[in-house]
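Quick look at the format.
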Amino acid sequence: MPAQSPSEYIGLDIAAVQLDYCIGEKEEGSCENRPEGRQSLIKRLKKLAHPRVVCEASGGYEKAVVAELLAAGIEVCVVQPGRVRAFAYAEGLLAKTDRIDARLLRRFGQKMTLRLAEPADPAAATLRELLEHRRQLTEQISEVEGRLHLAGPTLAKLLQEQLTFLRQQIDTVEQMIREHIDQDPDLRKKAERLQEMKGVGPVLAATLLAYVPELGKIDSAKVSALVGVAPHPDDSGTTPKPRHVRGGRAQVRHVLYMAAITATRFNPILANFYRRLKARGKPAKVCFVAVMRKMLCVLNRMIENPNFALAQ
């Protein structure tokens, strides 16, 4: 997103305990990744005419940093680590340290057109945390169930108690998710709107609201690419190759896949769409991805236009 005046790019490498930054060719430094250290960095950046910070998504350690920078009115671009690493390889840069990464991020921001981060909606952020906790509990249940089949009598009793506890925890967090959505008028309205489509349940609606804040704000092609259900061509010369989906937001894609399976059974329109693709010889997984993309595009339109009505 071009700025009204030239931006001064700052590369910021974020770790659990330290922030390494590169402001200019000769100005580098570091500070602690704590409130005091972050405020000292913000104070330094606010002296610049038009600072724009470029950092990587670093497993959640960037959340507090990005939030405080945005609250201070400083522009931030959060980029995928894979893109930055590919840029380093394109430069022929093989060395990797925190200081080197900060310089690399600064050059990456200067060369690439990046999307500016926006302040996170507190309600959506809380919903995302609850869904993350639910996902972790679900994974633990799968792991314990896998061990239960091979366990002896003594261990089986302990594992069964653990399963009971985990299932109770899932019931608790699902109740918290429902209450959180019901207490927020905007989330409740959007969740009810999304569930008007057959095949979309509370889990998918909550997942879209938490992980796809762009829903209804950008066109369907971009939403499909963000989630990772848009097939990309891989042709070379006169040899066409199968198209594949890649990247995107895996949390959304996993839930959307299960919803697509349900939709092909209970949603007449999507079921017919699936059967038509199968009749043309498409593999089942390709058909399911096409249903996922169709669902996402329609849901995007539903949020964008309150007057948009589903076909009966």
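Next, a different chain entirely:
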Amino acid sequence: MPMSSVATKERASKSPKRRTRSSAVANKPKAEDKAAAAPGDRRIGKGGHRLAAAFDAVSALPALAESRRRLLAATNGAAASGDELANTIESDAGLAIQVMRAANNGGGPHGRTRGIREAVDVLPLERLRLIAEQMDTYDPFERPGFLSQQHERFRRHAVATRYAADRIAELARLTDRDELAVAALLHDVGRLVLAELHSAFSDTGERGATPEERIRRERRELGIDHALVGAVLVRRWALSANVATAIERHHSPKATGHAAAIRLADLVVHYSSGDPVTPDSIIEAAAQLDLDREAVIPMLYEFPHSGAELRRNTDPCPLSDREIDALRGLAEGKVYKQIAQELSLSVSTIRTHLHNVYRKIGAVDRAQAVLIAHEHGWI
């Protein structure tokens, strides 16, 4: 047989294999399709549309009927307190989502408002009332059912995590606590998205699992986790980039700052609810914030029934870091010499720092300085 015929047959026998490999690559599902396809579902083509629909559904998250009623009552009149409005909005993740989206123009400049208190200052009272009037609601007492229970479980965990995160931020001396409050409220919003996409997945295998085991299961069976999905959605809402980053990283063992605070808060809330949480995971999460065991144990005892109200940092702090450290020493009842030793400074330097504090905030003595700083959330 001529050599040309042999070569032709060899090429013909090999070409189907090359076409098969090429076809396999072309038909390989994309990452977002993998996230949107339910386990065992082979119909992958419309994953992107399903994900967008899930985002839309969660973006219209209803509010607890009582939370909506209280916001309407708080906006009824021109004498509404900004703190009262903010506290009411922060009682419900659905309200918080709509208010933050409105304050950031639903896709406007990122980071224009970092927290609910700033959003209340940006939005007219009439706009807040309109947001409340247009929201769908759920009521687990008047209209009980699966969805009401699901929404209420999410709301309770979100609000509890927000309170725990604020307490942790106080212990760890974190700043921008209003921004942290938004991230804590919305830290699990990605779970609602996954529930829309994979209802069968979300309803099984959850009981008896620790938070770490749950997110590992998401990654193993879905190829994605709720923290990443939640961050994508928050960015679509044009919320602060810091909020999105904290949500995305709040399950990472290497999380720092706000993400680490939310991670620890989430564990504390699960622990207080009787969910499976290992003590080692709490200690490890606290260590990321330079908090030791002695700092965590009182918080576990206090939460969630301490009843302490959040202190808001509504005004820019005029004090330097060293001035704040010196003032914290006074608040803890220490004398100049003790503060100086702890900060590795001279007594005269501490005295100068505190005199600057009095002058900057208009205080006449240490007691008034501590009171003013507490009221503004600076310490």
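Residues 63-136 form one domain.

See the schema section for token definitions.
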